[in-house]
Structure formats: structure tokens, C-alpha cells
Fold this sequence. Notes:
- The chain is an alpha/beta fold and 458 residues long.
- It has helices spanning 4-20, 44-47, 54-66, 84-92, 134-155, 226-231, 258-271, 284-289, 319-330, 336-343, 349-354, 366-374, 384-397, 415-422, 445-456, and strands at 27-32, 35-41, 74-80, 97-102, 127-129, 163-164, 182-184, 195-200, 208-212, 235-239, 249-250, 277-282, 300-306, 401-407, 432-434.
- The strands form three sheets. Strands 7-8-10-9-12-13-14-15 form an eight-stranded mixed beta sheet, with helices on both faces. Strands 2-1-3-4-5 form a five-stranded mixed beta sheet. The chain has a two-stranded antiparallel sheet with strand order 6-11.
- Helix 8 (284-289) links the parallel strand 12 and strand 13 (300-306).
Amino acid sequence: MASDAAFMAEALAQARLAAEAGEVPVGAVVVHQGRVIARAHNAPVADHDPTAHAEVRALRAAAQALGNYRLDGCELHVTLEPCAMCAGAMLHARLARVVYGAPDPRTGAAGSVVDLFREPKLNHQTTVTGGVRADECGDLLKTFFRRRREDQRMTAQPLREDALRTPDDRFEDLPGYPWPPRYVSDLPALAGLRMHYLDEGPSDAPITWLCLHGNPAWSYLYRRMIPVFLQSGGRVVAPDLIGFGRSDKPKRDEAHGFTWHRQVLLEFVERLNLQRVVLVVQDWGGLLGLTLPMAAPQRYQGLLVMNTTLGTGDAPLSPGFLAWREMCARNPGFDVGRLFARGNPHLTPQECEAYNAPFPDAGHRAALRAFPPMVPDTPDADGAAVSREARAFWEQAWTGRSFMAVGAQDPVLGPPVMEALRSHIRGCPPPMVLPQAGHFVQEHGEAIAREAVGYFQP
């Protein structure tokens, strides 16, 4: 028969599901004759139901499974000491035993505040065991509430006078993008600017997929790949570069520079203490991202690289890129959604319009104007020297695994550019080629993500 610790592990898995859904991370399982017959996690926010605690939901499911509202002989294992409501439900269900993990000094009804289970006037007595895997259960709760406090603090971060912030209502109900925003603003390089990022999945996942977008995209670009990574048990971190997405947008084009954006990303990786990272890059996500691992190689175990390059300044830029740069200079107010629609005819109008969401007017578009001329095109250009160092790192020092995917229809960073890049990545196998995909290959990303999960999983 499984031990209390083993059943609590299943309850912890449910608690993590609650955390991923933005609920207080409490999970519960009901055990009958040594077998789990019901699993549940907190869902009062999602269900608009104040009674939808993990314990109550698990009791409901168990009663359905047994066909009886009395759960004689059953045990309930829950990650947090039950509150008075849940304790009452357990007693009413005639549970034989309750096992909990972390104590709850504010609302616990198994001894921390009151002890309903030892009330002699009640007509049923339930045995209680507390403290099973208490540290793990407590740490999960502490992490959740710490993140929520940080998110609340960052959401309230005042806006710098030399920057703009896209209104939140432009990001409401975007198709395929359900994840809650997170913010950081106290990185030294940000100097008070607020940077948005997604952080989904368990913090101790075997793989952290660090997804870096390019210009003129934002983290929305990874919405087709993120679910695949999460379903495999991974963690996904996807920041919006400053000037893009939900991040703050400096008003001046001159605020943007290669070295500065790279420093922001270096500090971001350090702040989140990312480990076991598979670096996922495309476009400017690669121009910047490919220079990161050499600064902390112990953090990185893999590379998923798509339609990008290194800006070393000692090789001519591709004709396709020069044409893109010229188009941006001639037409600085180009329609971002239309650009995505042109190369991805399978997108809905709503998906295309989501790419316009961060940029309501010309004042919000400084990064879109600044990034094309920022690509290092001479040996002494900003970022060229560090990109040459990165090239040497990938050629000589990289020890992780690499996976390349190429959108064959990309006129800017297509197969010829990617083959040249592959020659500089030690041990990189031939690429996965997507014949119908263009520059924004992530819009065909489910297949890439599935292949990558199989390739990189331990």
C-alpha cells in the first residue's frame, strides 16, 4: 500500500496545477482501500465559487465515484491544513482519516486556529495526521504568494516620463494567449522600465524553455509552442523585449542598443535564476540570445534555433535583410498584422491583429524603427565584437545539444543563412525544414515543439 508521502506527492501535483491556473496552490486526493479515487485542486477563481476548495472538490468527485455521499473508510490527503468549511465537509462525509501537509496559522481548523476534528460534541471523529511533506507543501505556497506580491508591485510600477505603456485593454481576449502577465522593473539595466514576461510551469522542471522573440513580434509569437512545452512537464519563460509586447516602450529610437538589450536579458536570466535552459530563439531573439550562453554556460543545456543569425559585422548581410531594412526605413508605420498575414495565410484576422496590439500609435513604435538599423553590419558596430565571441563559443566551447528548424519560405533568414549559422554550431545536426513556413516559423510551431520535446527530454 502506498505511503502517506506518496499520496501527498499526488496532492502536490494537483497543487501545482492550481498554481499554473493562478489559483492558490492547494491540492487534494481521496484514497479508498489504498487507491486514489478522486483528485482535485483549488478553483474558486475559475469556478466563481467560494466553496471550490481542493478538499470540497475532491470530496464531490469521490462521492460520485463511490455513488454515496458518505465516504466511510476513505482518507483525504491535502497539501494545506483544512479550513473550517472543508473540515466540516470532511466530518459530514464520515472520512476515516485526514492527512495534511503544511499548517495554516491563519485559518487552519485542525489545530492551528481551532480543532474541529477533536470537538467531542460532534457525532463523528476523524483521525488527523499533519506535517506530511510539510516543507514541500509550504514552499509551494510561499513561492506562489511571493510571485503574486512581486506581480502586484510590478504592475503598480510608475511609468518613466521618457517611456510609454500600452494600455492593458489592448491585450484582453487575444486568441490562444491565456497566460497571466508578470513584470520585472528592478533590474539595474532597466533603470525603472517595466519588462513583461510569461513564466509558466513548475520551477523545478527538467527543462526551462527560454523563448526569445524578434522584431516586430512579441511573446504572442510562441503561443503555439508553449502548450506543447508545458504538456511535456517543462517550464516556459518568454519575455517581451523592451519596446515590444506588454513591456514599456521608450519614446526615443536612440534608447535602443544591442549592448543594452543584451544586458537586460543577462540580468533577467540571473534574476529568475534559470537552470536547465533550452534556449529558443528566432530573428532578434537569436541575434541577442545566441550571445547569452557564453556568459553562464552552466545554465544552458540545449539550443532550439529558428530563422536567425549572428551579427558579427565581418560578413555581408543577406540581400533579403537589406531589403527588409530598406522597407522599414521607407515605411516606418507599416501594419504589423498585415505583415504576419502575408507570410502566414492560415492566421485568422484576430490573430493578425494581436500583433498590432502593442503598438497603438507611432509613439509606441520606437523599437520597430530602431531594430533594423541596429543589426551589426561592420566590425566595430555595437554588438559585433560580442557576436564574434559568441560565434567562437558555439564553434569551440558549446557542449549542449542543438536542434535547428527552418522556415523555407523566409526571404530574409532562410535556408542559406541558416546553413551558414549551422556550420558555426558545434554538433548541430541537419535542420528540420518546414516547406510552407516563412520567417515567423513559430506560427507553424506545434510540430517543431513536439520534435524538440522528444529531442531534448532527459
